[in-house]
Amino acid sequence: MAPPAQAHRSPSPSQPSGKGEVSDLKSQLRQLAGSRAPGIDDSKRELFKKVISYMTIGIDVSAVFGEMVMCSATSDIVLKKMCYLYVGNYAKVNPDLALLTINFLQRDCKDEDPMIRGLALRSLCSLRVANLVEYLVGPLGLGLKDNNSYVRTVAVIGVLKLYHISAPTCIDADFPPTLKHLMLNDPDPQVVANCLSALQEIWSLEASTSEEASREREALISKPVIYYLLNRIKEFSEWAQCLVLELVAKYVPLDSNEIFDIMNLLEDRLQHANGAVVLSTIKVFLHLTLSMTDVHQQVYERIKAPLLTLVSSGSPEQSYAVLSHLHILVMRAPFIFASDYKHFYCQYNEPSYVKKLKLEMLTAVANESNTYEIVTELCEYAANVDIPIARESIRAVGKIALQQYDVNAIVDRLLQFLEMEKDYVTAEALVLVKDLLRKYPQWSHDCIAVVGSISSQNVQEPKAKAALIWMLGEYSQDMQDAPYILESLTENWEEEPSAEVRLHLLTAVMKCFFKRPPETQKVLGAALAAGLADFHQDVHDRALFYHRLLQYNVSVAERVVNPPKQAVSVFADTQSSEIKDRIFDEFNSLSVVYQKPSYMFTDKDYRGPFEFSDELGNLSIAAESADNVVPAQGVEANDKDLLLSTSEKEEIRGATFNVSGYSAPLYDSSAASVQSELAIISSTSAGSAPSSSLAIDDLLGLGLSAAPAPEPASVPPSLKLNSKAILDPGTFQQKWRQLPISLSQEFSLSPEGVAALTTPQALLWHMQGHSIHCIASGGHSPNFKFFFFAQKAEESSNFLVECIINTSSAKAQVKIKADDQSTSQAFSDVFQSALSKFSV
Amino acid sequence: MPVAASAIYFLNLRGDVLINRLYRDDVGGNMVDAFRTHIMQTKELGTCPVRQIGGCSFFYMRISNVYIVIVVSSNANVACAFKFVVEAVALFKSYFGGAFDEDAIRNNFVLIYELLDEIMDFGYPQNLSPEILKLYITQEGVRSPFSSKPTDRPVPNATLQVTGAVGWRREGLVYKKNEVFLDIVESVNLLMSSKGSVLRCDVTGKILMKCFLSGMPDLKLGLNDKIGLEKESQLKSRPTKSGKTIELDDVTFHQCVNLTRFNSEKTVSFVPPDGEFELMKYRITEGVNLPFRVLPTIKELGRTRMEVNVKIKSVFGAKMFALGVVIKIPVPKQTAKTSFQVTSGRAKYNASIDCLVWKIRKFPGQTEPTMSAEVELISTMAEKKSWTRPPIQMEFQVPMFTASGLRVRFLKVWEKSGYNTVEWVRYITKAGSYEISLMSRANGNPPFLAKVELDEFRFLQS
What we know:
The complex is a heterodimer of chains A (840) and B (462).
Chain A: H1 19-34, H2 40-57, H3 65-71, H4 77-90, H5 95-108, H6 114-125, H7 134-145, H8 149-165, H9 167-172, H10 175-185, H11 189-206, H12 211-220, H13 223-231, H14 238-248, H15 256-266, H16 275-288, H17 293-312, H18 316-332, H19 352-365, H20 371-381, H21 387-403, H22 408-418, H23 423-439, H24 444-451, H25 462-474, H26 482-491, H27 499-515, H28 517-532, H29 537-552, H30 554-561, H31 577-585, H32 590-594, H33 599-602, H34 612-634, H35 646-688, H36 690-700, H37 729-738, E1 743-748, H38 751-756, H39 760-769, E2 773-780, E3 783-791, E4 798-806, E5 811-818, H40 824-836
Antiparallel strand pairs in A: 1-5, 2-3, 3-4, 4-5
Helix pairs in contact in A: 1-2, 1-3, 2-4, 4-6, 5-6, 6-7, 6-8, 7-8, 8-11, 10-11, 11-12, 11-14, 14-16, 16-17, 17-18, 18-19, 19-21, 20-21, 21-22, 21-23, 22-23, 23-25, 25-27, 26-27, 26-28, 27-28, 27-29, 28-29, 29-30, 35-36, 35-39
Chain B: E1 7-12, E2 17-22, H1 31-40, E3 50-53, E4 56-63, E5 66-72, H2 78-96, H3 102-107, H4 109-119, E6 120-121, E7 124-125, H5 130-136, H6 158-162, E8 179-192, E9 198-212, E10 218-223, H7 226-236, E11 250-253, H8 259-265, E12 268-270, E13 275-284, E14 292-301, E15 305-314, E16 321-330, E17 335-342, E18 346-350, E19 355-364, E20 370-377, E21 392-399, E22 408-414, E23 422-436, H9 440-443, H10 451-461
Protein name (chain B): MHD domain-containing protein
Organism (chain B): Citrus sinensis (Sweet orange)
Keywords (chain A): Membrane, Protein transport, Transport
């Protein structure tokens, strides 16, 4: 019968384990089961309540399943409900026990009381046990024909539940056509609404396989159905109205008369107390009139008042949902709320998520007539205690400045922010001033005077620091101290954590050099030297690039670094209009809140590889697969297919062949690229203008000999590898079996590297560039497994590598085997440095 | 799909599950762990009520000491989901008789399970109206869990009414005395500068009704709103009576109100539910009568002293009075000592909210009490962290006063048996967010000293 009560898992040590209590309950229930004494129901109730309360706090009470079923023979409805609840909770994990309940549930489905019939039917369909579906069909069929509407509403949803447990059973029993008939004929609106929900789900899921289903799905938005539902709309509950309106929004009317008829019919819905109904109605209006420009404008006027009411009434969460929708509307029709901007002023006590959206609204509705008031209000918020909101407010002021033609006053405000001497205010303002200058260079004079007085030590945030440095470079001719500030920044190169700032610093020093050479010469040398020694690839490359550019021709360098600039007229929009349209199509849904179309957050492929659900779902799997991998090494001796588990074999074989198929040309190019750095430098220094390049280096005080080029961070490996190494898979397997593991290490991967691993091929190309070749690879996110090999340049001494990368932890576990054990450490260094440079 | 909620959770502030209901299998059972680790235990809590974690979206709301979390896996209708939670909470409250908190949930979990099954099936909202549900969801154990009386079986035809034509009202109600109570409750939201100019002001009002009427009565409500009056005079072709008319910005009604008739005839007619309900809500931005004007002056005398003077003027009729007036005047954190002089009520310093709290229990109209306080501050090292000057906040209730000026002109009740009804009407105006700014725009504090006029000038030119 019931399994022993060993399966307890108490969620926290503080809670009772429940073991004793459960066996207590069990014996008490037994006593009551057969008794027919008066007042027995009350004692049962107390016991049942205890069982349910244990269940709620997470104690496993499945052990009393049998006893509960025995006690269920009662006419007391409260008892019955508790029993149904219990059964519904444990049936899924105990399918065998669930069979016990079928009998009494089926009997209850024929009870004379419609309440009991409905409840029993609902519980029966909620068991969710696949091998019991045969017992569902009969009661469901009867339930759909029941003369009581409560039973019918339950039965309709029951059909949907059945479909999710076993779609074929549902389809074979011909339930969908029955639902359709009910939807079009049932007197009870809730039955109709539930039919609509069920049919929408069933036919959408079936549509991919059955043409008939997709026709039926289309038929739901045909004129007769839509008109039928619209004519009954007032009978529906508020939730069902949302459902119907959602459907109507998909309907395409034939002509404008139809559109006006529908809108006239629905206009009073805008007065509904339920905000969800109002929003659904608005969606219908907007979508119906998309092609009628002037009517569409009138719709905006009409929906304004209800929307503003929704913002100011209800809980903050509800306001949040509505404000998200207002935002998308105002983006499409900025005029709509222009005169109502005061509704979006923040209240002191509002939660920050509401404030944030209100700030966005204020930015969006700002126009020539209201800018002054809005900016004044925003400036108030800049002194807010809530720092994130203060920042957002400053950004909002900046955005408005970039929208307007008359920025005069706003520039003054921004400059005053700089004088407020609050670090975060200064930081935000600097970034904005930079953007402003890019759009309105004519303001440079006023801005620079203020910016020049800011001490760079007070600016710590990377974005702000980069902005300040950019201005120092761009306007170094106007700023007295520019070269000296840059100099002190360069002196602290080592302490600067942000690569973005270092990149900007390099460029700014270059710009400054062309404007004020004598003062900057020394700094430039120091900056280039520091840049060349930088461990960040981009910084290193840019420094190298500037260095060569200067060696090649100084005036060309000036043209590259300091070209005449045009003011930016419009900053690039972050979202394409296509995406915006898609979001608008999905008005009144999560898409609007997230500001992205639904496929981006419901489709698995679109979510990033580090998403939580994968992480959570695969946690156990990942652990298992890791387990599988490690012992595989242990039993390698008699494992014929050492490299590949049988399931992955085919797939990976294909990949390996691909690699070798493309390998030949690639080897050449990678060899070329390895040498290219040296080649260019030697050719310029030795060939075209040796003296000038030397002169430049001297001038800059770089103190470098012309060649070889400095490469301090990426120290050239002492170990030289053969870029054209060849090893056939058979030999690899043989060697892997024979050789002992000489090194086993764990490396961290850079985030860029992890990101690039979305295509594992990328790593293969990358490693080939470092003369490390892949022989086999496989795995799925987040676990990838690679086998690499390499050969020493001079002798045919091989290195074999097994590398398991886990993208979610950004770690690589590397096992190295080598012909020559003494060089394996050196190879490991090479491998690590190659791996660390891997990025997109 | 408006909402196909996959699960609903009720958690306490520590994140323990009080009660939960999984409606669908498309989300894992451990979703609540995700909510705890990714939202509750991070700074994210309270930054946004909608969050996506993996393939699921979480909607959450805090109500007293309970978090209610809805998990969905599809592109759900956000407004609908939040409205559902709000309605569900209202339903639970009406069952528990008031409070909704952790204890109430623990004491009534069986009932909540039952209700959760009725109000949502497989993730689709069903019937949430308390009037109907109370007909067939009964737990007389609600009030005292250990009282034991045999339950009445639900009235067999109760379910017929669940979805009947007038879904919100039972037939066959009988009252000895037929009474209707109307409450017009308005809350005033205000932001005023310290010089007394109104920066933002609106009124949200609602009409609450309590009906104890027999049979199936038809009610008609007349207000002094502009559109309704104009329509009426049009229909009766006689000029509008003089007197104040109110322009309502927007109105929403309880589902019992016949909206078609409102749109054509501008009358509010309805068959009311039994008992208490919210008949309508409205919003007004023009012509608001503010009940109070507040004139603060705050002088910072050096680093360690402040002088606070506040004058409050009640601008409603001299025969009326306000109740429960509380004025919270913020002071800096480093306040050490305060001394007060008030011409009415009592004042004290509340360190936990950094405010001087001035309470006046009964505040007659057309009076002008003042408070003057001296505040001594501890001088601190952190000079740069200047005081941000939060606004003065005010709470009050003014009975028999409406900030909008709205009045009920008539309430007519028709019932076929033709009984007489007694109608009671009450008005009350409360403070919504009633704030008086102490900021720079008012008294010329940094950072925008003197620049403001200049800007104005520039704007005029452009």
